[in-house]
Design brief:
Elements lengths: L20 H7 L3 H11 L17 H14 L8 H16 L5 E9 L3 E12 L1 E12 L13 H13 L11 E10 L7 H9 L1 H5 E7 L8 E4 L10 H15 L8 H9 L7 H6 L3 E7 L18 H20 L10 E4 L2 E4 H10 L2 H16 L4 H27 L16 H4 L3 H18 L11 H25 L4 H11 L8 H11 L1 H14 L3 H14 L4 H21 L17 H16 L1
Parallel strand pairs: 3-4, 3-5, 5-7
Antiparallel strand pairs: 1-2, 2-4, 6-7, 8-9
Length: 610
């Protein structure tokens, strides 16, 4: 005789216990091999040897050059007379060293400036090999006066480094193994337009094996390396370890590196500040050398407030010269730009990180597929849940349309697809009236669309489970697309997968609400880390991300994925907060909504007139 089932125990597969938690737990074991591969991939990396000669960088001369540039041309906003004068000053300074200067002039559409004329100034010091090392610094500034000099230190260091490879009277210039390219870029404070132009279109960039970007190296903070790229790429391991070693030799301690979580966010977001990003996007290993200034954005656009530190400028200038020497003597060394995760003195292979993130989706997908099969077997009313999800998808798509309208009306920027400066006017001075109009328009659209979703009566457990099933299945589809197209972006999605998967098992309100909020940690933490990088608060960062979307730095594909995720999040929020109802109360067929009613009315009007 069958033993009696204990009272109060809920059978797996019922409405009260719809999720096969055992399947999810057992299938999570597939993550273990990928995690082990990730752990075993963590290793140290080689460092190029020190150059045979000590650096000759003269800190006092470089400081004087920086002061001259800041004094003669305090405002160097791209497209202005000050910017043109600074370009002439730089050309004359380099020509006085006996080195050639080539000028490239083009136009670009920059945020807050419109279509302006820009200038890159390039100096080539030939070596025995066609392979090249690029030294890059932008000479422009935002003209706001907020930052004294704004990369006058980087430009001055570029001049002083060029001096070391120029002919000194009767003494010939040293002959290098690799060619040196000195690039003074324009619009570095406006998204790095000059660096992007050089990296994408210059034949010299195709010869570069590595690029060192100098940005605000005259600060008093701890030296720091910026590694993020415009795509899911990282600088070569050897370049990062060599740069760290040469800086440590000159400064006395290793430079700061981004945290592992920050690097994951940078790899997941199709955005990167810093001029090194343009070189990495073209497959050139590049790092930015800067200083960490707590009062400034995490990736500064130039020198910190106050006078430059001659000591810091000298140390980082000598470190840069030593890095160039190490790379130059390593003829034949390769500098691949594969994705990596740098952990201080160790590195994890990027493919193992991607594999772990992708495999982590498998238990969720299996759990949702099992839930979907059980729901179909029990003949749950899935169609109303799907209609409700469709309505929420339309609402968020309407929000994306309003974002585009905001760009057309000047609320959000339209410019070249470049990283936006955090000092952009749309962030620093909110277009309050325009933003309010967009918010009101979105609210009205939601009020019109929500009529079939209003919970007039308490939904049945079967209807609630159908709502969960459709939303989780949609979320699983979004996760699979992200895994296939942008694996690193899973760091924003995974918390929502495994927090919201357990919502159907939580009968009480507050546990559900808490679990739902935990699922939001992925995008929230990503937004906070991005805000820290650009030095903005949460509200300003949200506005900043919207601006990245309207200029095209955040791609349309990414925006569509975000809209799809928001639709699932909205339906699960209604369920978690007890505000869910099946579409049109579950009626079949449902009453026509506003859109179908308007279309039917239009058809009748046309029919009557004809």
């Amino acid at each position: 005789m069958e033993a009696a089932r204990p009272r109060g125990r809920r059978r797996r597969g019922t409405v009260d216990r719809p999720l096969n938690a055992r399947l999810v737990r057992v299938s999570s074991l597939v993550v273990a091999p990928a995690a082990l591969a990730l752990l075993f991939s963590i290793s140290t990396t080689g460092t190029l040897p020190r150059p045979p000669l000590d650096p000759l960088f003269d800190a006092s001369v470089a400081t004087a050059v920086a002061a001259e540039l800041s004094t003669e041309f305090p405002s160097r906003v791209p497209g202005t007379d000050g910017a043109a004068g600074a370009a002439r000053w730089y050309s004359e300074t380099i020509l006085a060293l006996g080195l050639p200067v080539e000028e490239e002039v083009w136009s670009a559409d920059l945020v807050d400036l419109g279509e302006v004329e820009l200038r890159n100034l390039v100096t080539v010091v030939p070596g025995r090999s066609d392979e090249a090392i690029a030294l890059v610094a932008h000479r422009d500034n935002s003209g706001s006066g907020r930052v004294a000099g704004e990369n006058a230190s980087g430009t001055a260091a570029l001049v002083e480094l060029a001096r070391a490879f120029a002919r000194q009277g009767s003494v010939p210039a040293p002959l290098l193994e690799r060619t040196l390219i000195f690039v003074s870029t324009d619009a570095g404070a406006y998204g790095g337009a000059g660096a992007a132009r050089f990296a994408r279109s210059s034949p010299l960039a195709e010869r570069a094996v590595a690029a060192i970007v100098l940005n605000g190296i005259g600060g008093t903070g701890r030296p720091r390396l910026v590694l993020s790229g415009g795509r899911s790429r990282s600088p070569a391991r050897t370049l990062v370890s060599t740069a760290s070693a040469r800086v440590a030799e000159q400064v006395g301690r290793s430079p700061l590196l981004p945290s592992a979580l920050t690097q994951l966010v940078d790899l997941g977001i199709p955005y990167a500040a810093g001029e090194q990003a343009s070189f990495l996007a073209q497959g050139v290993a590049a790092v930015t050398l800067t200083t960490d200034e707590p009062a400034e954005p995490d990736i500064p656009v130039g020198d910190p407030p106050g006078p430059l530190s001659e000591e810091a400028l000298g140390r980082l200038g000598r470190a840069t010269e030593a890095i160039v020497g190490s790379i130059d003597t390593s003829v034949g060394a390769a500098f691949p730009t594969r994705d990596n995760l740098f952990l201080n003195d160790r590195v994890a292979s990027g493919w193992t990180v991607r594999l772990t993130l992708v495999v982590a989706v498998v238990p969720f997908v299996l759990g949702v597929l099992d839930l979907l099969v059980r729901s179909r077997r029990r003949r749950l009313p899935l169609i109303p849940g799907m209609r409700g999800l469709r309505t929420r998808l339309f609402v968020w798509s309407y929000g994306g349309l309003l974002l585009w309208i905001g760009a057309l009306t000047g609320v959000f920027p339209t410019a070249a697809a470049l990283p936006l400066p955090p000092t952009s006017s749309f962030v620093a001075d909110w277009h309050v009236a325009g933003l309010a109009a967009l918010v009101v328009a979105f609210a009205l659209g939601w009020l019109l669309a929500r009529r079939p979703l209003v919970p007039n009566i308490q939904p049945t457990p079967e209807e609630r489970l159908a709502g969960y099933t459709t939303a989780l299945a949609w979320l699983g589809a979004v996760a699979v697309i992200v895994a296939l197209g942008k694996p690193y972006a899973l760091v924003f999605v995974l918390p929502s997968l495994y927090a919201w998967l357990w919502l159907p098992l939580l009968p009480r309100l507050w546990p559900r609400v808490s679990m739902y909020l935990i699922g939001l940690l992925g995008p929230v933490v990503g937004l906070l880390l991005l805000g820290r990088e650009v030095g903005l608060g949460p509200a300003d960062t949200a506005l900043y991300v919207a601006g990245l979307a309207t200029v095209g730095t955040v791609t349309l594909f990414t925006v569509l994925l975000a809209i799809a995720w928001l639709a699932a999040a909205a339906q699960l929020a209604a369920l978690a907060f007890d505000r869910y109802a099946p579409y049109a109360g579950g009626a079949e067929p449902p009453a026509p909504g506003h859109v179908r009613s308007a279309v039917a009315h239009l058809r009748r009007s046309i029919a009557r007139r004809s």
